[in-house]
Specification:
11 strands, binds S-adenosyl-L-homocysteine, binds iron/sulfur cluster
């Protein structure tokens, strides 16, 4: 049994406390204000010491909502007939990158549904090559295009992508099966293997989870955070699960925690992970903002150091509907960027400009190997 008083003292006394998963579970679940204060104070101090008082911007480009998969939680799953399927043109993606570059973001995230056709693989390769040429390597590219073969990951790496985001979603294989169709396209081991392949190829590897899925509890989230630590990832993007009416998981909405609780758990998960993994990049997920307009600032305030302004052209945003109430679907990129800078400054962080913002963890592990 974890003693909450002893845990609070440990957080106050130790500059770099070692936390067990049971202690993390208590931190996620507890509503004790004094414990929470010590917890957030420690997470913030660790971020300030290992990363600094700054936030990196990554321009998020949702390139396409065409997806071959059918994850039971996702609004753009293949079987959902509702969203109009789109693919941004080559030029539209390049324009979004130009915007990021001019604003001094230093980095973009190119995300899409999961497609493994030769045409798609070639298109991404060509885009990466063009981005490298146009910006002369000054714009770092993160890809988030799902599970691919080692050969594809290698091709994209060689063409200029150096970071990759692939959330594990949950680290419990049985629970993974409960939130995905049971077929070979949605296989837990395969997803873990992809994370290993990405690392083998040389990427800065990003992963993450959803928090507050139906049937999930705090102990499961705590074990997920331990999994991210064991996998030794370099970057994490994680956020609350938000139900979508046109998905199979909608049927289980009566099992959900209230939205406020999912928000609180999402923020606490960021703080706990910062204590567990001191020098990685942690993003303040957009889904936090779907619940509370200040959700992302709260995450930045307790240890996150990355925020992702949306650079997707307005006409596509409502169709990239992973979940309901996705924020900023009617704000253009200029407004989005001004608004976010104000938010970051409002909590006393500096906006890091013209910097790649590589994961310090990644560079340290490169030095060690
Ligand atoms: N197709 C790629 C990238 C796009 S989806 C992939 O799946 O890896 C990006 C992330 O959106 C997923 O990893 C998932 O964690 C998140 N997501 C999907 N549906 C969601 C929902 N209903 N609520 C919150 N996050 C969701
Ligand atoms: Fe496709 Fe990614 Fe959504 Fe799964 S989570 S259905 S892979 S876009």
């Amino acid at each position: 049994m974890v003693n909450a008083v002893a845990l609070r003292e440990k957080l106050i006394r130790e500059a770099e406390p070692d936390l067990s998963w049971q202690e993390v579970a208590v931190l996620l679940e507890s509503k004790d204000k004094e414990l929470e204060e010590a917890f957030f104070m420690r997470a913030k101090a660790i971020r300030d010491k290992f990363i600094g008082k700054k936030a990196y911007f990554r321009g998020l480009v949702e390139m396409s909502n065409i997806c071959a998969k059918n994850c039971l939680y996702c609004g753009i799953r293949a079987d959902n007939a509702e969203p109009h399927r789109y693919k941004m043109s080559f030029q539209e993606v390049m324009d979004a990158c130009q915007f990021a570059y001019e604003r001094g973001y230093g980095s973009v995230v190119l995300q899409s549904g999961e497609i493994s056709s030769v045409a798609f693989i070639n298109e991404i390769t060509d885009l990466l090559t063009a981005i490298q040429q146009k910006f002369d390597g000054r714009l770092r590219v993160t890809l988030s295009c799902g599970e691919q073969s080692e050969e594809t990951y290698q091709r994209w790496y060689d063409a200029g992508a150096h970071r990759y985001l692939l959330r594990i979603e949950t680290s419990d294989p049985e629970f993974y099966r409960a939130i995905h169709p049971n077929d070979r396209h949605h296989d837990f081991e395969e997803r873990v293997n992809c994370l290993r392949l990405l690392r083998k190829v040389g990427y800065q590897v990003g992963s993450g989870i959803m928090i507050g899925l139906p049937g999930q509890n705090y102990a499961a989230v705590a074990r997920d955070l331990m999994f991210l630590k064991e996998m030794d990832v370099d970057m994490v993007g994680m956020g609350p699960y938000i139900e979508h009416e046109e998905t199979p998981l909608w049927e289980r909405r009566d099992q959900l925690w209230p939205l406020r609780e999912r928000l609180a758990a999402g923020i606490k998960a960021v703080a706990a992970l910062r204590i567990l993994m001191k020098d990685i990049n942690i993003a303040a997920a957009t889904a936090l903002q779907a619940i509370d307009p200040k959700g992302r600032e709260q995450a930045l305030d307790v240890g996150a150091n990355v925020i992702m302004p949306n650079l997707t052209p307005i006409e596509y945003r409502k169709d990239y509907s992973l979940y309901e109430n996705k924020p900023c679907t009617d704000e253009d990129r200029g407004m989005c960027s001004v608004c976010l800078e104000g938010r970051v400054k409002s909590i006393g962080l500096e906006v890091a400009r013209d910097q790649w913002g590589d994961s310090i963890h990644y560079h340290d592990r490169q030095k060690k190997s």
